[in-house]
Backbone:
């Protein structure tokens, strides 16, 4: 009886700790949402508040002044994220599966090559020359997808997951007459679903949050992704704010969205990811623990 009480007490303390920790994690997000619906004058006078003193959507009205441009940015980002994640995940899984096969004679050499590129890479200039001068895919969606198709860290992470698949399972499939492609698609991939979801989520984050490639390769306004569009809006806001401070523009600075626009941009950029993440949470948590314990 005493042991059960101690167990329940310990479990209750652990639950209380994680509840408290979760609250501390949620509070910053609530602050971001609150600030995005506040006025610049309230922020200048009272600082950040968890509940807006004056509720306003002025920052969002400013950012949504051209809804077609915003919708186009969302469309481009969603297309790049979906296509890029699917292509990158497939190639990453195939490469990692090849490296994880202990009966493949070139597995160690291939692993060393991937690990070497994790430590050393060609840098920006070779990529820029390759995209612009040799492949001629600048100003296309492919220029936003190709650079992130193979990321060495994701390949090594996937290899760690796939290495846990028993070789005897693959050998038995071969005895039954299955070819390598069938083994990969019908046996390996279903088993590695948690790992695929975890690595796929990492890849999707990279594609969704990227603005750097668009700044380098995209000139067509119709191909500008959401992140780069919001980045340019924020730069314009900073430029106007600096001129307001210098007195070059005769506008009340407290009425111009600066801090509120920053937080509104964060909400607009992170909103879709925050909506999608709960659907992958169970696979994500399971995928992080795959290979941690053998038994």
Residues:
């Amino acid at each position: 009886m005493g042991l059960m009480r101690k167990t329940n007490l310990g479990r209750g303390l652990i639950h209380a700790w994680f509840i408290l920790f979760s609250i501390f994690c949620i509070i910053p997000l609530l602050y971001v949402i609150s600030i995005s619906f506040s006025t610049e004058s309230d922020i200048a006078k009272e600082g950040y508040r968890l509940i807006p003193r004056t509720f306003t959507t002025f920052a969002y009205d400013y950012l949504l002044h051209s809804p077609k441009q915003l919708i186009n940015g969302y469309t481009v980002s969603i297309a790049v994220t979906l296509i890029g994640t699917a292509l990158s995940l497939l190639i990453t899984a195939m490469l990692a599966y090849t490296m994880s096969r202990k009966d493949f004679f070139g597995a160690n050499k291939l692993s060393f090559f991937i690990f070497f590129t994790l430590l050393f890479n060609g840098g920006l200039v070779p990529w820029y020359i390759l995209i612009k001068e040799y492949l001629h895919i600048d100003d296309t969606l492919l220029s936003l997808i190709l650079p992130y198709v193979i990321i060495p860290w994701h390949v090594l992470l996937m290899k760690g997951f796939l290495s846990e698949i028993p070789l005897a399972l693959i050998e038995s499939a071969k005895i039954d007459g299955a070819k390598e492609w069938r083994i990969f698609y019908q046996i390996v991939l279903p088993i590695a679903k948690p790992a695929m979801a975890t690595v796929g989520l990492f890849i999707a984050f990279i594609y969704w949050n990227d603005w750097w490639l668009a700044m380098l390769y995209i000139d067509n306004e119709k191909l500008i992704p959401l992140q780069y569009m919001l980045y340019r809006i924020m730069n314009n806001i900073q430029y106007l704010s600096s001129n307001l401070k210098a007195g070059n523009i005769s506008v009340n600075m407290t009425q111009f969205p600066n801090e509120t626009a920053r937080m509104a941009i964060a909400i607009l950029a992170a909103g879709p990811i925050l909506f999608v993440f709960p659907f992958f949470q169970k696979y994500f948590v399971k995928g992080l623990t795959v290979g941690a314990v053998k038994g």
